[in-house]
């Protein structure tokens, strides 16, 4: 197990690579980390391919930030290892890992201008003043702040500070870029804009990127693959569309997007009977019981205005192109249905509606008592 | 549920609310009408008179003794105004020596207290935040220990050891720290006295900056630990370091009890010593020492000003802070 990277390798990080060089392969192997009785990582295995952007997504305390900090070298795992291009870096100090990081809080050095912040790592590596200045200008230009070199952090907005932090992280041409919820402190509009900018940069530089977020929208819209973590374990790592359409576990199904739980029954033919309809089952079928709960996405529930319908619209939430209806069904079941807003005009709260399901495979879980 | 029937699968909506809510939700805030402004409560008139009175009273409290002292030093009954007390100062026996000794003690105390406190507080902040209350209590203890008790303790310790230990390094050390030319024992005692002020100043500075994130940001940029402390933390703690030095300087220049009882003669002790024989000169020295202290504090406060917060960088208009 290596402990440090050779000094020559360190200098190669800046001088030897070009901006378009492919990123490194990052592997988590059986990572385990506990804080007292709290297990943050419980045998995490994950491989991130070169040039890939993988989002670590999960609820608070699932271990996503701990996993990122283990890669950065700010946390030591109790067991397991982290490999970058096949090289074990688990015990390599944080300052020798060749990984750029952008933090959630604005982490710029308050006493340095934007230019000096970007050039900080170059100065640490002993790069000459002229080359530092040139590289800082190049990166500030890359993040869209060519005229902000002389400004200090307190003279910039949050979005501008995070752009400078991104430029600083990229200045040394790291093998891996680590993003620890870099957008969560920004307002919605800036967040959306910077999200696109980060993705554009990541694609153009081809740098392997690990992105921690609790925001599904960010994860699904930016990442090549999304790794959903739960209680320190990997539930599923898949492309956003696959994660949404074909969740591997009930946890992923319910965590990513919105899910209805409807009572159903497994028939002899292996179909699930739910609300009078018979639908194919996707994934494992509980063997202990036939009484199940069927997981259905709101967009797979249809609702039409019908004075004779058995459902009642309780609330309607307008989201632009889509309107989400909250409906009460006989028997005390509630269901959410997403309709194109142009079709939801007659379904105001209090209206009666006929509700149906689209015919597609569904996930089922054993019904809890 | 009887009404629910399977229907052919329609195309999935372009954007589900889960993934579109952040960007497609309409702006719903209604603009506030002019009536809101009309209904705003009237501001109460500011109590300018009272503020001026309090300001004048406080100013008088500080200035009257100073002016009285100054008048006493320059007004000689029967002779009118004379600056003789000030002109004789430099030639006065012990003035320069005691002043230089006090400044040297102050510099050493500042250096020692910062060398002790900065690494300790950084370590607590980064490594063991739970120890912070313990460190705080320990640092605050000198506030509740009277100087006379401290002197008694120091004297007792310095008298330890029977004669047969006189050739040991311990005994020699005890003698060395009591060297009249530069009594290190005073530096040690003053460091203890200054600890509460140094701690408070540094703690406030460390609360003002996100120390763990700055350290991690610097480490991820390749900085070693010494580089992080010297080039990242200290520059960002500049104001609080200056504040700590500021308070320590004031404390050392004015400290009398410990130095006097231990038999040393720094500036404060020298002033008291000459006050019996040269009353006018001793008051002149006090006024002068006050001015010197103010001057040094001014220098320290200027040194603690962060260049990032002064107008050396181009100013930013409110509009330029908005995202483009």
Give a concise summary.
Chain A: One of its GO terms (cellular component) is ATP-binding cassette (ABC) transporter complex. With 369 residues, chain A is of the alpha+beta class.
- Give me the strand/helix succession of chain B: EHHHEEHHHHHHHHHHHH
**Shape designation of chain B:** globular
Largest beta sheet of chain A, briefly? 6 strands, mixed
Please give the order of strands in the largest beta sheet of chain B. Answer: 2-3
Would you identify the CATH architecture of the largest domain in chain A? 3-Layer(aba) Sandwich
Q: Can you tell me the CATH topology of the largest domain in chain A?
A: Rossmann fold
Low-confidence stretches of chain A: 1-21
Please render the helix and strand layout as text.
The complex is a heterodimer of chains A (369) and B (324).
Chain A: H1 7-15, E1 26-35, E2 38-48, E3 53-57, H2 64-72, E4 79-84, E5 87-88, E6 99-102, H3 114-118, H4 120-124, H5 129-142, H6 158-170, E7 176-180, H7 188-205, E8 208-213, H8 216-222, E9 225-230, E10 233-238, H9 240-245, H10 250-255, E11 260-266, E12 272-274, E13 277-279, E14 291-296, E15 301-305, E16 311-318, E17 322-328, E18 334-340, E19 352-358, E20 363-366
Parallel strand pairs in A: 3-8, 3-9, 6-7, 7-8
Antiparallel strand pairs in A: 1-2, 1-4, 4-5, 9-10, 11-12, 11-14, 12-13, 14-20, 15-19, 16-17, 16-19, 17-18
Helix pairs in contact in A: 5-6
Chain B: E1 6-7, H1 17-24, H2 34-38, H3 48-74, E2 75-76, E3 80-81, H4 84-87, H5 95-127, H6 132-144, H7 147-158, H8 169-176, H9 184-208, H10 211-220, H11 225-236, H12 238-254, H13 257-261, H14 267-275, H15 279-303
Helix pairs in contact in B: 3-15, 5-9, 5-12, 5-14, 6-9, 9-12, 10-11, 12-15, 14-15
Question: What do you see in this structure?
Answer:
The complex is a heterodimer of chains A (369) and B (324). In chain A, a hairpin with a 2-residue loop joins β9 and β10. Chain A contains 10 helices and 20 strands. In chain A, the strands form 4 sheets. In chain A, strands 6-7-8-3-9-10 form a 6-stranded mixed β-sheet, with helices on both faces. Chain A has a 5-stranded antiparallel β-sheet with strand order 13-12-11-14-20. Chain A is of the alpha+beta class. The radius of gyration of chain A is 25 Å and the shape is globular. In chain A, 25% of the residues lie in helices and 32% in strands. In chain B, α3 packs across α15 (279-303) and α6 (132-144) packs across α9 (184-208). With 324 residues, chain B is an all-alpha fold. The model of chain B is unreliable at 1-38 and 310-324 (pLDDT under 50). Chain B is globular. Chain B has a two-stranded antiparallel sheet. Chain B has a domain at 85-290: MetI-like (MetI-like fold, Orthogonal Bundle), CATH 1.10.3720. At the A-B interface, β6, α4, α6, α7 and α8 of A face β1, α1, α10 and α11 of B.
